[in-house]
Model the fold of this input.
Amino acid sequence: MKLATVLEEIRGGHRCATTDDIRKIFGDYHKVLRWLAIFLIDDEKLADAYIVDACTIAETQTPDFHEWLVHWAARATVGWALQGQRARISELTPKYEHREPVHLTHLPLSPEHFVSLIKNSEDIRTRLDVLCRFVLVLRGIGKDSYDEVATQLGIGRSAVERAYCVAYDAIELTPDAAPTSAEASACHVNNEHTLADSTT
Done:
């Protein structure tokens, strides 16, 4: 509603978005971006340093800038957080490269799985290492392909596939998200030791 109101004011006045316009809208997304940063780096004190504040570059933008807030602010926040976690991800990668092959491919998160992730994010975050959390966000939420995720993280596709299966299992194992398909159950059986091994 806030977004619709602000855009109507902008279009009605035939003007470009101002910093104040963006601040009104950005407030709605700030909590989401902060959740994203905390989930990825597992540190509430440092989370704010990784959030990309759109207000600082809003003055020259058009009303279509709200699309950046929805998509690119999250992407920029993930990218910034990744810079601080690359070394740890590199350290963890061999553990996933030497796992048993993943025989089933999980799709990006369904709306139901996404809701479960939000509801149980603190528990899921503590059960997954940083590699699994980045893969979960990029593949599960961002819907990037395995190859795209591998390129962004600078690791092999096989490690991404195994890490995503572990992350997917973590969501499936939450109390309010019992396995919903034979595919999920089979993946869990094939990788039942992985979840425990991947916790931090």
Notes: The two ends are 40 Å apart (CA to CA). The longest helix spans residues 66-97. Residues 86-198 form one domain.
